[in-house]
Amino acid sequence: MTNTIVLRIADFLKDIPPFSFLTVDEQIEIAQSVKVEYADVDEDIFLIDEAIKPVFYLVKEGAIGLYSDDDQLSDECDEGDIFGLRALIRQNIYKLSARAIEETILYSIPAEVYDSIISKNTEATKFIIQNLANNLIKVTEEKFLYPTVKEAIIEDESTAKYSKNPITCSEETSVEAAAQIMTVKRVGSIIVVHDNKPIGIITDKDLRTKIATGKYSIQEKVIKIMSVPVICYPESITVAEAQIAMLKNKITHLCITKDGTDQSDVVGLLSEHDIILIRENNPSVLIKEIKRSFSVEELINIRQKTSQLIQRYLQQNVSIVFITKVVSEINEALTNRAINLAIKDLKSNPPVPFAWIALGSQGRKEQVLLTDQDNAIVFKDHEDNESVRSYFLSLAKKVTHTLHEIGFEYCPADMMASNKSWCLSFSEWKEKYRKWIQIPTEKNIMHCTIFFDFQTIYGDERLGSQLMEFIHQNIEKSPIFLKFLGKNALQNPAPLGFFRQFLVEQSGEHKDHFDIKARAMMSFVDAARILCLDQQLDAKNTLERIDQLRKKEPQNAEVYDHCYEAFQMLLLFRTRQGFEGKDSGRYINLAKLTKVEKLGLKDAFKAQRELQILLQTRFQLSNFM
Amino acid sequence: MGIFKKKTYPKEWETYAEHFSDKITNFSEIRFVIFDTETTGLDVSNDRILSIGAIGITDKNIILNDVYECFVSQEKYSRETVEIHGIRKSCEDKISEEKAIVQFLDYIKNAVLVGHHIDFDIAMINAGLHRLGFPSLKNTSLDTGNLHLKTFQEFPRQQHFSLDDLSHSYHIPMHDRHNSSGDAYITAQLFIKILKKLEKNNPLSISLLKRSARRTGLL
């Protein structure tokens, strides 16, 4: 009979990778070999450069900090985290010191256990190797977010899939024989080749127009009726290129050759049918449907199809960057259509040029799930701004209503173009922005975080870009402003002690849940915005902003790379959560997270902190106020 | 039994007693066995041991391959205690009291015994030994209740602390409470935490730990 305490420890091990990959008997065997140690606050477990002990550690309770030689906290281990294994496997000295941050219970596990049990299990070893590479995000993506790593299927950009074994015949073949081959092989075309180089093509259409009409006898050689020249492309042709080529040449088949000319060997055939298969229920088809729709019902239907498309993408592990792009395009088209329909409905054209502006997450093109609508209108100044405004207000009322019907709920804070505070002329907007930048009260800063991320969805784009120019000029005039914005961005410190301290919501509907948007994602969004404003970079999308910053500041490339990965992961995590829970995906139930998910989130929080430190240093925020 | 005549005991006892010839002076090498018994009641002469749970500590580490656990079968059976401990009479894997006592001796050897209000547990083991015609345990014993009192600078008004009280104030999670192994494990954690506290003021030694709490005070 196994000891109660041993079973208790084995029970703890069973949920913790790499032990989770082992059998129950192996878990019990490991539990039996465990030594339980206690560490007081500030007690050292091992020191940097010390000879390694023949054990590695698993944190049962409390927290252990791993410190570099300048005593900088480089990692924090809490419940379920393993440390000291890297040195053990590499058989060298400790590269970091381990010290208890709080009272901690540790399980020290002898090295023999690693050799005799863990290293013999493939899954467990794989997990450890990935961990040792100190690239938790990889583990997360492969094990949880990308169960099987696949190339993203980006339709337009992807190379078109063509038939690899094209049906060919020689120039000597009779039309009758060629038609028989086509029938047997069930294809609509046959390439006529000379020395495996394409000299012509026969399609069903040629048989219909040239043979069935009696123009030529079926005994004729194919060379008499074939279409020339054959349009050839190289293997690298993309779906978009193929479509254009077919339209331009008014043909339905493209011949794929080695170098893309008719002077090289035939390697395949791409038909219009192949393209249709790729295109079915895809973003561009949906966007076309939106443009052709005339009722709200049709738009609702398209938005539902979009949801299905996203879900399919998620299953296919298409990159979240691509997914957000597609969703933004579709949402933009929906809004556009809603505006067009509203203008028709009003039976009078806009009195002055205007721009419909998306704000917040839609402005950043980061909307994946249906969220609230945040929008505004900017119109060209007129001598009677009030009467112009009343037109745009009634327009906005119709548009926001349609968007609401489609599934974009009304903004609870009424930040919508239908609110007269956000339906302003160009000069009125300039005045608003000037005020916000010059008087950085808490409320004004809050407005900045929403109204600085804008995107012209409909109308005169110059209005939007001129406003942005104006914002840049004003920020330059009051450098203190970015400090205030920076301070605001640091409001939510990276929740590093997350799984131990449970930085969850204290009250309300989402009590005991972690708000991934407010506590993690907004930090990246806010920091990227400020850093870009400071560097005068125009990107609006957070990932694009990080990418631009990376190019602008190569000295910080490492931090930005980490943030890019982390934000992608958070975005994908939230999207998946949202689809699973059929909600905004914002609130995470900690109890339901797997250890691997926790590791991924934890790595993202580390990136968050690195970014916050960068922000703090850049704007000297530690001494600010 | 005559005092002048050296009595001979069964071989199991002699093997156990032999361990006491080696004296260990280095504190970090001393083996502690933290143990707890569950019994049919509190009357040492009439009640019986239901189970023993024990766990070894060396150098302030709980050693998971140094554990002992047994459930004892018996005739005497008190309904009330069963309600607390949940040990049913029909429980499988039970062994006789004799076997349990002999196994326990073989397990503890010359370890320093530690328990919460350990005097009672030792008295229960001793009663079992006596029924087999063995003498009392030879081991040094430490009471975590007393050790806790030694952590105070001034002698506290409250002098009796239950295991629940101490688990609470030392932040020890209470899993498997009222199961002898579970209680032994909780007591083991408590013991290490107390040692760490005491060691801040004095180098640890058995004589320091044995000294009555009343005499520590400001000395």
Describe this structure in words.
- The complex is a heterodimer of chains A (625) and B (219).
- By secondary structure, chain A is of the alpha+beta class.
- Chain A contains 25 helices and 20 strands.
- Chain A has four domains: 4-134, Jelly Rolls (Sandwich), CATH 2.60.120; 168-279, CBS-domain; 283-478, 2-Layer Sandwich (Beta Polymerase, domain 2), CATH 3.30.460; 482-618.
- Residues 133-157 and 500-504 of chain A have low confidence and may be disordered.
- The longest helix of chain A is centred in the middle third of the chain and has 27 residues, at 320-346.
- In chain A, helix 7 (175-185) links the parallel strand 9 (168-170) and strand 10 (189-194).
- In chain A, the strands form six sheets. In chain A, strands 1-8-3-6 form a four-stranded antiparallel β-sheet. Chain A has a four-stranded antiparallel β-sheet with strand order 2-7-4-5, with no helix packed on it.
- In chain A, helix 17 (426-438) packs across helix 18 (442-451) and helix 17 (426-438) runs parallel beside helix 19.
- Chain B has 219 residues and is α/β, with parallel strands linked by helices.
- Chain B has one domain (28-216): 2-Layer Sandwich (Nucleotidyltransferase, domain 5).
- Chain B is 38% helix and 18% strand.
- Chain B is built from nine helices and six strands; from the N terminus they run H-E-E-E-H-E-H-E-H-E-H-H-H-H-H.
- In chain B, helix 1 packs parallel to helix 3 (97-108) and helix 5 (144-150) runs parallel beside helix 7 (180-198).
